[in-house]
Specification:
- This protein has 310 residues and is α+β, with helices and mostly antiparallel strands.
- It is 20% helix and 38% strand.
- It has five helices and 16 strands.
- It has a 16-stranded mixed sheet that branches.
- Helix 5 links the parallel strand 13 and strand 14 (259-262).
- The structure holds pyrrole-2-carboxylate (PYC).
- Pyrrole-2-carboxylate (PYC) binds next to helix 3 and helix 5.
Length: 310
Amino acid sequence: MIKVIDSHTAGEPTRVIYDGGPPLVANSLEEQLHQLKNEFDEYRQATILEPRGMEAMVGALLCEPKDERCVTGVIFFNNRGYLGMCGHGAIGVAVTLHHMGRIELGTHYFETPVGVVCVELLTANKVSIKNVESYCYLENVELNVPPYGRITGNVAWGGNWFFLVDESPVPLLREKIPQLSGLSNLIKNALVSEGITGRDGEEIDHIELFDNHISSNADSRNFVLCPGGAYDRSPCGTGTSAKLACLAHKGLLQPGEFWIQESIIGGHFKACYERENTNSIIPTIVGDAFVVSEANLLQVTGDPFIWGIQ
Ligand code: PYC
């Protein structure tokens, strides 16, 4: 039996797995991720794939931290594989740990495979995350994306790799989500065929589109396609971090200045940054999460989909 608590952050679901998970050896978070990927990937599939999960869900496996400051280690994953960090997920984990009575309001640290994040639980539902170092890696990359033609974007790291397009040829309207997903998949294919990657050849697995359809209380609206093909219902914490890194790089947002990022379904994150060094920033993302269910995932002998629908 796998014990989980589900929450959503601006509509994007997070499933915290707190009991019945795989027996990982308490090594570094990177090593635990390696072990999970190579020896116990069926746990990711069982908890996230249908019929127990759904395509937009991000799993957050609680594990032993190595860094003594940290209240927990956490490995994030989705329907396709593993994430470095996850902003909406970290907000969901903080609210869930408080719901479980494991943390009080105040400052805590979570260890992820890509670094330690500082989490401030402001209320039972509101969380501020100081994310990992974020930076703009490639500027004004031109891609040929038929039938849309030339599309220009930036490559940035915000805890995951993003290709950010400022002027989406498809309007960022909720009713256009299927077309925005289609366009994002074409961009992803073009990145692969033109050999464009993040640092050290890492796959750019998130596509983030922007345009000027914004509600009055936001600075920008985004659409983010996640690696497994689902769109992010939230404004995407790591995507907002990548956006801030690009704005900082271009001198369009100053340290400490607030930025309200709106999602395609109208959720908001409030963000700002401090400068880490000339090329990188530390973003802070504030959002709200709500616990929606507590469940025991059952795996009954004879169930043909005991490890999910592949
Ligand atoms: O909030 O960072 C995020 C995120 C990544 C993928 C889905 N949400």
